[in-house]
Amino acid sequence: MIWQSGAETGSDGTGRRPWTEASLRELHQRLLAARLSYRPPEHLLTELNEEYRGFVANHDGKSGYYQWLALLVRELAPGLILELGSFLGVSALMMLSELGEQSRLVCCDVEPNFAFFPEHARRDPRVRLIVGDDTDLAIFGEHVPQAMDLLFIDTEHSLRQVEAEWSIYQHLCKPGTIVVLDDIRLNDMGQFWERVPYPKLDITEDCHFSGFGMFAYEASAYPNPALAWEAARWVARLRGR
Asked: Is residue 13 scored above 60 in pLDDT?
């Protein structure tokens, strides 16, 4: 497990050591080393078809991000993970495989999918599966996730969508939240990635052929749900909702 606390005091005054590009790179190298001996969590993958079993095993050398996500959770020991864009649920299952007993995983997708989620994983009290448009915070009911340790965004892979999502969810992150983005080389996603002003690392070559990156939300702002709701209402107006 990596600890982001120490003698140095971060700009947020918590004593947390801020992430840098160098420390993100060191983290990534540890995950790659751990991946050499990694074994997939078969008890959670019983519903996967052969194609996705191959992806998880990284047989083609182009989809190593599934194992990387599991190992990231093992290393960071996050208390709260939010995944935007779960689709069949494979990434969520990989993160769940390393989730601590007191931690929580919230997964959201616009379609009622999660087809690869076995029943026992659906019943896991640490997991919450949400169906709906993630730019509408009302889908979470009274329990809108905030102060996430890890945010994974893998939705429709467009600048329009990721900008809308980040305009909302940045206000629910805390200083030091690790944000992981899939498919940063698809469509116009690269424009968002280039604009990220925080410590970041493009790890496409090691994780996913269509682009993969992470950044650390090194900002002084703490979660502010009121600002998140305001941003969500603005997105709704822009989209005619």
From this structure: no
Mean pLDDT of 161-188: 97
Q: How many residues does the chain have?
A: 241
**How many of the other CB atoms lie within 10 Å of CB of 154?**
21
Q: What is the pLDDT of residues 71-101, one digit of tens each?
A: 999 999 999 999 999 999 999 999 999 999 9
Query: Which of 86, 41, 76 lies closest to 214 in space, CA to CA?
Result: 76
DSSP state of 137: G
Alpha-carbon gap, residue 130 to 197, rounded angstroms: 30
* Closest residue by Cα to residue 89 from 59, 62, 119, 61: 119
* Side-chain half-sphere exposure of 195, counting CA atoms within 13 A: 9
Residue given tokens 């889908």 in the structure block: 139
For 208-220, the pLDDT digits (tens) are 999 999 999 999 8
- Rounded to 5°, the CA angle 207-108-203 comes to 15
Residue 48: pLDDT band (50, 70, 90) is very high
Three-state DSSP state, 131? strand
Select from 90, 95, 227 the least CA-distant residue to 171: 227
Residue extents of the structural domains in the chain: 21-238
Q: Is domain 21-238 in CATH 3.40.50.20, yes or no?
A: no
